[in-house]
Predict the 3D structure of the following.
Amino acid sequence: MASPNPLITDPSTKDAATKDAAAKSRIVAHMNADHQDSLILYLQHHVHLSSFHARNAQLTDLSLSSLTIASSPRSIHSIPIQPPMESWSEARPRVVAMDKEARNALGRSDVTVKRYKAPRGFMTVAIVVCALVFVAFSRRANFVHGSFLYDYQLRYVPNFAAFCFRIQPLVIFPMVLVHGTEARIMVTRRLEKHTVRWGSGVWWLWVVGTFVEGWGSFYRFDEVVKEEELKKEKTKH
């Protein structure tokens, strides 16, 4: 009986390797495209990175025993999969379990907010008024002759302009302090909890919206969370 030629590759082995590579490529692409929030959580939980330093998390490679995640081009982290997988078919339930573990450890919600909800009705009026007050009271010079605001509007009410000139410091500094505090609370108690990626477009919309508008943003954010919770409930049935 002839012995097998070591130079000849078994077609079944080659086919299995091709399928494994394709499965691995699909998993990497899917995680980066649709589950970056999970990658961020893995880095925060296992590597103890801040939300700022984990914000650009990208899955660069994976094996049956670990995930390789880059937080930046020069910062590469290996996250162990315990116990190791036996095949790529286990990948989905494993990464879901790792996501749940990280959320529980970090005290995060299982709802990730990925959109901004614009103000409506009275809320729109409120945010426009707040924005106009911020602009008008940003400097005292807006209330004296030579400014656009004074020459085109306030010159008809000079006594009111003089009053605004006097109280400008008493208005703008408390507004910046209060609204800045509200924006910080939005970041720490809402955006962090619901894994809104630090520095993303959605993150900036909520932060700037809260700074200008104040507490109205919190109501809308909580509405988004409730809407997403309802969607998750429907998918279970």
Notes: The radius of gyration is 27 Å. The helical segments are 11-34, 36-47, 91-106, 122-136, 148-152, 158-191, 201-213, 216-236.
